[in-house]
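Amino acid chain
________________
===
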Amino acid sequence: MTATAADRRRVGSATDGSAAEQSAGTAYAPASGGRRWTIATTPGFSATGYLPAWAEEDPSESGVPLDRLQIRLADINHWTRFDGQTMRVRSPAFGGEGAQLGEAHIFRGSIDCNPYAEDPDPRVPVVNLAIIEDFWINDLDPADLADLAAKLRAQADRLDHEIRPQLIAARADWAEHHAVLPQPAASPSRVLDRGTPRARPSGDSP
C-alpha cells in the first residue's frame, strides 16, 4: 500500500531555495487540485499538500521553526470518525469494585491517513477499528475490511441461526425439568406475635 513516486510530487516554496530543498525532505503532495493544507516556517518556506474533503481538521500552521518542520509533517493526520453500536457490557473500566455494567461502544472507528508516517501502511487512507474500549484493529485496507465484515456476518448468522435456537431449547428444558427448592420456614423462635406484648423483666423502668 506504499505510494509511488508517480503518485506524488515534491512541493514547497521558499525565499531561499537551498533551505527549501534541505527542509522539504519527504514533503509531497498530489498533483491534483482541491483543498490544501499549508505549514509555513519562520524563514518563509512553506510545505503544502492535499487536504481530503472527508478530513475533519485542517493541519495548516504558521510560524513553525524550520528545524521542527519534519516533526510537524510526521504528525499530520487526516481523519474522520464513524459510530459503532452501543451495548451493555460488564467491565472494570466502569469503576467500582470488580466488573461493573455500563454502556460501551463496539466497532466504532475512523478513517485515517498519515501521509508522512514512518510506517508505509497508514500513508494512504485506512480504517482503524475499536472492537471495544482500547482494543483496536489498525490499518485495515479495503480487502481487510471486507474480510472482517464477512467474519462478523458469519458470526452474526451463527448467533441467530445456531446459538439462539440452542438457547431457546436449553431454557425450555430447564423450565420443564428444574425443580425449584422450597423456601425454608422461618424459625419459631423468630416469630413474634405482634398482638401480644412481651412481659417486661422485673426492675425495668416503664
